[in-house]
Amino acid sequence: MPSLSKLFGHTSARLMLQRALESGNLPGTYLFAGNNGVGKGALAQAFAQAAACLNPKREPFDSCGVCVSCREALRGHNPEIVTLSPAGEQMQIWQFWDRDNHPPGVLTHTLPYAPSLGKKRVYIIERAEALNESAANSLLKVLEEPPEYALFILLAAHTARVLPTIVSRCQTVRLFASPIEELGEYLKSSLGVEANRAESLAAYAEGRVGQAIRMAQHPEVGAEIERILDFAEGLPVAPRVRALRLAEQLRKLSGQVKALSGEDSAAESEKSGSEEGAKERVGRRQLATIFDILIAFYRDLLTLSVGGEAMKRVVNRDRLTKLSLLAQEGSPERWISCLDSILLARRWLDANANIAMLTETLTMRLLR
Ligand SMILES: [Zn+2]
Question: Which pLDDT value is given to residue 270?
Fold first, then answer.
């Protein structure tokens, strides 16, 4: 896990955090906001490690990597840097505070005690959108005035979905996607990803570093992308009467996209919750990653049908011959309208629209 100074992207956010650490007057409560896969988790870990470090580097402020707190953090075992994720659909009050008939609450048993390993106790709260009202209310006081040795880092995709009483108590840090070329270069030079693959992964991830790294490191990802592209290649030439059948295939395909969507690693933290809700959320995440690949695919068709200089930006280069033929099946206007339809479907997906209806409307629009 890279330290604050060595992380890719988020330059202004990192500078701001480093300045706050340097000042010795660190706010006790942060909210990192940015789309799924943008890299909130990695930044939170690096920030937590720097804040807890016993012997931090200066100018720029960063963790030392060798003190006992850093060593434990790097092994992922620092008991004073705790990550909390929702138990199922929601983050429950008993996850924080002792309640009858539940496992011990984390804060009840740690927050009153000063850290003994490092300088801070850090609580990283994932998916702050999922804090239900009673859990959120139970946190208001500690978020308002945490003990000086405590640091809370809440993570959320959208601040608008976090309860306003929580947001108002946090220092908000917004995280954005990086330029695709820069991310591709990073995957190549720092992670040793082969050049063509690095560029396409950066494009599929739309510049989100967390998603790109997950894709680069998971052995199953390549096969999943191929399966989605095989499906995508059938779309430009399929007649509209096949729309419902293709929508069904699309939903089935999304059930198989596990590595790409991070479902295999997320499943662990979610299995304890309400089965239906968790399944529903996983399904949406899987469909969202398919949309990402479809967007790259249709962008390629657009690029190829326009031709010229832009051709260098084709993402799926190993399918160039087939894509060039498919691009002739439509005009640039058609490919633009397909892209619009996918972007719209992705917004509906975010807004919790019905998945069957959403996929059917999408395939209707994509077919001739
Ligand atoms: Zn250290």
Answer: 46
Residue 41 belongs to a domain:
yes
> What pLDDT, on a 0 to 100 scale, did the predictor assign at position 264?
64
Domain count, the chain: 2
Instruction: Check residue 105 and report its DSSP letter.
Output: P
Side-chain half-sphere of 112: how many Cα atoms within 13 Å?
4
Report how far residue 285's alpha carbon sits from residue 159's, in angstroms, rounded to the nearest whole number. 19
How many angstroms does the Cα of residue 366 sit away from the middle of ligand 1? 53
Q: Please write the tens of the pLDDT for every residue from 311-347.
A: 878 889 889 999 999 999 999 999 999 999 999 999 9
CATH code: domain of residue 268: 1.20.272
Q: Which residues contact 322 (CB under 8 A, 6 or more apart)?
A: 233
Assign 156 to helix, strand or coil: strand
CA distance 154 to 122: 11
Which amino acid, 275? Answer: E
CA–centroid distance, residue 15 to ligand 1 (Å): 19
Residues near ligand 1 ion, CB 5 Å cutoff:
53, 63-64, 67, 70
**Cβ distance 348 to 358 under 8 Å?**
yes
What's residue 106's pLDDT? Answer: 96
Structural domain includes residue 211? no
What does pTM read for this prediction? 0.87
- The CA 5 to ligand 1 mean position distance, Å, reads 14
User: pLDDT digits over 183-241, tens only?
Assistant: 999 999 999 999 988 999 999 999 999 999 989 998 899 899 999 999 999 999 999 99
SS (H, E, C) 207-231: CCHHHHHHHHHCCCHHHHHHHHHHH
Distance (Å) of CA 122 to CA 4, 110, 191, 244, 299: 16, 10, 28, 49, 42
Distance 340 CA to ligand 1 centre (A): 48
The helix (run of H) or strand (run of E) holding residue 121 is strand 121-125
Q: Which residues of 203-239 are buried (b: 16+ CB within 10 A; e: fewer)?
A: bbbbbbbbbbbbbbebeebeebbebbbebbbebbeee
Q: Which of the listed residues 152, 174, 196 is the one where a domain comes to its end? A: 174
Q: Tell me how far the alpha carbon of residue 83 lies from the centroid of ligand 1, in angstroms.
A: 19
Residue 196 included in any domain: no
